[in-house]
Design a protein that fits this description.
The structure holds 2 protein chains of 2 kinds. By secondary structure, chain A is an all-alpha fold. Chain A has one domain. In chain A, about 85% of the residues lie in helices and about 0% in strands. By secondary structure, chain B is an all-alpha fold. The N and C termini of chain B lie far apart (about 45 Å). The chains are: A mainly alpha, B mainly alpha. The interface between A and B is medium-sized, with 22 and 25 residues. Chain B: One of its GO terms (molecular function) is heme transmembrane transporter activity. Chain B: Pfam families: Cytochrom_C_asm. Chain B: Keywords: Cell inner membrane, Cell membrane, Cytochrome c-type biogenesis, Membrane, Transmembrane, Transmembrane helix, Transport.
Chain lengths: ~220, ~260
């Protein structure tokens, strides 16, 4: 069931691939603003890198949420999907598709941004890019899961767009804290597996609760 | 047990709840005023100054700050519990309760942040610090405001109720993070010391616990007043509300 739903999500998304490319472009452009605004000096950029890359990733995840839910809600196909299968499995397929098409590309693009932000400046043997990718790999699915809940709740609301951000950003903060501090710890040559473990724990909690909550919310929005 | 269940179901009736809360309200307000009067007297005049850390009079801020901070969290937990009751037992009055707690809780959160900031300046030398506990209190304020914003964004009230109930339940995950953040990050804010043995001298405890009780009752009174308004708003069309409103109007004209 879920694989059928997932195939459908991927097919719909493929036909609107520009919509998927925009959040990624946003991710790169936002990060590239910081050298202009702060300073192009490598040590400075390196210090900012974990926070800047993580905040940009978080925002671009938020921006890309809309297209996985909004049009399905507006043209009525969400209602049909909910008639066809359980709300939780609809939510799972949407969350998974969202992560595959925005979270995973962010992880893959992050070495480029690490390069732009001079993340390996002054380190010959330690590769911080891997740590950055690892933290995003564990953190972005949690962002997708929480974002799905917020998006499903606001589908039937009169104002949207910014409303989702207000609801969800406070819930994103713990992920942001530990995501960025994983990379910071690595930059300071400290052990970072504790932070990674907490990111993993957040992911586990979110996997258990978020699809269910999102499914309930989708049902409320449609019903 | 059966009696308790019956009572629980009766509370689901808007009319019954409106009448009962109307009976409770004067008592709650009376107790609130007495406790707050006694508590404020003790905390502002009759309690000793803090000597060990040289805080002097600023320690008196504690008697507002601690109850406000406690209520900001208890309020959110109460909201989540009412939200679960509403979603599980489909009790419409539970949603009215959730909606009534939100503004009072947001006000308490703001009060806790404000008094904390005023207290922080003389003791720590700063209005604001990105300390874990303060930051999570700020996030709690955002959660309350997000809840209010979400509830206000629907034209259909039952959708608004259900969607924001889910948000309240999801947001309650933030409460343990607040609570344990002191232990996790452990930065500037002092640890939780109210119930720790010997951490708080008895002459501080008396005013603090009186103020805690008074503020809890004040919170309850505010929520109940809001709840009554919410009940009237949601049942405008029903007969007993019409009768209640016209009876009140007649009384006014007779006077």
């Amino acid at each position: 069931m879920i694989s059928t739903l997932l195939k459908r999500e991927l097919k719909v998304a493929r036909r609107n691939w520009i919509g998927l490319a925009i959040p990624l472009l946003f991710f790169i452009i936002v990060v590239s603003l910081f050298p202009f605004a702060v300073s192009p000096e490598a040590p400075m950029l390196q210090k900012l890198a974990p926070g800047v890359i993580w905040v940009a990733a978080l925002l671009s995840m938020l921006l890309s949420l809309e297209q996985f839910y909004r049009s399905d809600f507006q043209d009525g196909s969400l209602e049909q999907l909910l008639l066809m299968s359980s709300p939780t499995s609809v939510a799972i397929s949407k969350i998974f598709a969202h992560w595959l098409l925005t979270g995973l590309p962010l992880v893959i693009l992050s070495p480029l941004l690490g390069l732009l932000m001079q993340i390996n400046y002054g380190f010959e043997h330690i590769n911080h890019t891997w740590v950055l990718m690892l933290s995003l790999m564990l953190g972005t699915p949690t962002l997708c899961l929480l974002g799905a809940v917020g998006m499903s709740l606001t589908l039937a609301a009169n104002r949207n767009g910014l409303l989702v951000s207000i609801l969800i950003i406070p819930l994103y903060v713990p992920v942001l804290i530990f995501g960025a501090s994983t990379v910071t710890a690595s930059l300071e040559s400290l052990r970072y597996n504790g932070e990674l473990a907490i990111l993993g724990a957040f992911l586990m909690i979110a996997i258990v609760f978020a699809p269910f909550a999102s499914g309930r919310a989708l049902k409320i929005s449609v019903g | 047990m059966a009696k308790a269940w019956r009572w629980f179901h009766q509370l689901g009736s808007p009319k019954y709840l409106f009448q009962k809360t109307g009976q409770w309200l004067p008592w709650i307000w009376g107790a609130t005023l007495i406790l707050l009067a006694v508590g404020l007297y003790y905390s502002l005049w009759a309690s000793p100054l803090e000597a060990r850390q040289g805080q002097g009079h600023t320690v008196r801020i504690m008697y507002i700050h601690v109850p406000a901070a406690a209520l900001s969290m208890v309020g959110y937990i109460a909201m989540a519990i009412a939200a679960i009751v509403g979603l599980v037992w489909k009790m419409k009055m539970a949603f009215a309760v959730v909606r009534s707690i939100a503004p009072a809780g947001a006000a308490m959160t703001f009060l806790a942040l404000f008094t904390g900031s005023v207290w922080g300046k003389p003791t720590w030398g700063t209005w604001w610090e990105w300390d874990a506990r303060m930051t999570s209190e700020l996030l709690l304020l955002f959660l309350y405001l997000g809840f209010i914003a979400l509830h206000a964004s629907f034209s259909d009230r039952s959708k608004a109720d259900k969607a924001s109930a889910i948000l309240a339940i999801v947001g309650v995950i933030n409460i343990p993070i607040i609570y344990f953040s002191v232990k996790w990050w452990n930065t500037l804010h002092q640890g939780y010391s109210v119930t720790q043995k010997g951490a708080l001298a008895p002459e501080f405890q008396v005013p603090l616990f009186t103020m805690l009780a008074g503020m809890y009752l004040l919170f309850a009174a505010l929520v109940i007043m809001r709840l009554r308004a919410e009940i009237i708003l949601r049942n405008q069309k029903s007969r007993w509300v019409m009768e209640w409103a016209t009876a009140d109007a007649k009384k006014v004209t007779h006077d």
